[in-house]
Amino acid sequence: MRRTLSRLTASIGLGVSLVVGSLAAPAVAQAEGKIRIAEQFGIVYLLLNVVRDQQLIEKYGKEQGIEIEVDWAQLSGGAAINDALLSGSVDIAGAGIGPLLTVWDRTYGRQNVKAVASLGNFPTYLLSSNPNVKTIADFSAKDRIAVPAVGVSVQSRFLQYAAAKQWGDKEYNRLDKYTLAVPHPDATAALLAGGTELNGHFSNPPFQEQALANKDVHVVLNSYDLLGPNSPTLLFATEKFRNDNPKTYKAFLQALAEAASFAQNDKAAAADTYIRVTKAKIDRDALIRLIDNPQYEFTITPKNTYPLAEFLYRVGAIKHKPESWKDYFFQDEQPLQGS
């Protein structure tokens, strides 16, 4: 299955590149002036593309009198991202609210991993090429649904949230058995080409829009219909990195804020940045139209994350109950006003 999907990716030109670099190296303490950032795939990581393209971390580091070395890695799936963060291989992790809540719960009172910022608000679609699947109640053993990480990714958690609404909390993981861990580019390639056992994908932009170019692919569930407008993707770090590297951490926050303003206010330039940094094979005009969608908001302020947190505690997926979104977000010099 994995080999087939890789061939499809290459032939369609969606290109998946897992740049692991030093991720396999033993963890070493990082001195002030270095930051290692792990991201994944899609427009939801556009702010990081802008930060990288314009060297904004380096810019704000120099304003504080330090040279900052920035290393970038690309992985797929919240489980891999969390492992990299906890092993000390990366300092900033980019993943969904699902993986963040998992690692926040796991490190509570120890490494104390918390979110640094949101990467924006975006709808994500659960797609299927099975004409008999109109709602999540129609999925069966004949279906396989791609998610970045089974049971952990934000897409998996959204699916569980939907299942709980459909069948009750005790059945929240009812659809997990139909899911497979497949990177977004590979899953998109499979849906576009057809002919594989993979006929479903809980996606993200722009991959979900690309997959819909196949007339047999349709939307089964929109995350905004499930939870309302929300921030599906976050950046997070350990308390130690934040405390030991205050200047580097501050430069990172300043860089993110500038990137958010840039992306929100100049969609054409943001689209050019995405294409340039990711080398995505996507039509520029189509991309501009996509990110100009009023449902897309590039901001570091988290929105509507708490319902998922409360749900995961209620069903026993996390052990510690956050009293509010502020429990799993760092509160810095300029506290975020989120939800």
Shape: globular
Largest sheet: 5 strands, mixed
Number of helices: 14
Q: What is the share of helical residues?
A: 25-40%
Q: Tell me the distance between the termini.
A: 40 Å
CATH superfamily of the largest domain: Periplasmic binding protein-like II
SSE layout:
Elements: H1 2-12, E1 34-39, H2 46-53, H3 56-63, E2 69-74, H4 78-86, E3 92-96, H5 97-106, E4 114-118, E5 125-128, E6 145-147, H6 154-167, E7 179-181, H7 184-193, E8 200-202, H8 207-211, E9 218-222, H9 223-227, E10 233-237, H10 239-244, H11 246-265, H12 267-278, H13 284-291, H14 306-314
Parallel strand pairs: 1-2, 1-3, 6-7, 6-8
Antiparallel strand pairs: 3-10, 4-10, 5-8, 5-9
Helix pairs in contact: 1-7, 2-11, 2-12, 3-11, 4-5, 11-12, 12-13
